[in-house]
Amino acid sequence: MSDYFSLHQDKIINSVIVFAVFFIFQLITGLIVRAIGKSKKILVSRAKLVARYFSVSLFLLTLLIIAFIFGVNIEDLVVIFSSVFAIIGLALFASWSILSNVTSGIILFFSFPYKIGDKIRIHDKELEITAIIEDIRSFQIHLRRDNGDLVTYPNNMLLQKAVTLIEKDAFDK
């Protein structure tokens, strides 16, 4: 066992350094996302969700770097990633809206000008919706109409339609 450690000591030290950098970057991105969420008055749960997306992405990048440190052949990684992406691609093609809504949820976190409690109107040629934003989730936004009906509207559709602010923070009334 000690032969293994002495033989691969440089790889182990480099891996520890990569993991340390990963944890530092994870901490920094979490703090940045929470700071952006706090400055935009976004719910802490939404900020944690977006921070988790970044954390998973950083972790996958860290695993890729560690694979290179331990000398995994690029050809082997290409075969593995192409196989995995082909399977994921087929699965997501069947449910492409899930990936689209998650991506839209991240975009809404950083750039959506309306907050929970605002009364908005979504201009859709088939159905015009006027409601108060009750919650913004990963896949959809929850809107409460004046008659009490709860409308769940997909995040990707919200980015595609024109939205008008009718009243700022209608819950305070």
Characterize the structure shown.
This protein is an alpha+beta fold. Helix content is 61%, strand content 17%. It is built from six helices and five strands. It has helices at residues 2-7, 9-39, 44-69, 74-94, 96-111, 155-160, and strands at residues 119-123, 129-136, 140-144, 150-154, 162-167. The protein has a five-stranded antiparallel sheet. It is elongated. It starts with a helix and ends in a 6-residue tail after the last strand. The mean pLDDT is 84.
Morphology call: elongated
Overall structural class, as computed from helix and strand content, comes to: alpha+beta
From the alpha-carbon coordinates, what is the Rg to the nearest angstrom? Answer: 22 Å
Strand content: 15-25%
Trace the largest sheet across and list its strands: 4-3-2-1-5
Number of strands: 5
Helical segment tally?
6
**SSE arrangement, N to C:** HHHHHEEEEHE
Main β-sheet, in a few words?
A: 5 strands, antiparallel
Mean pLDDT: 84
Helix fraction bin: 55-70%
Cα(first) to Cα(last) distance is 69 Å
Could you list the spans in which at least 5 consecutive residues all have pLDDT below 50? Answer: none
Features:
single chain; 173 residues; five-stranded antiparallel beta sheet; alpha+beta
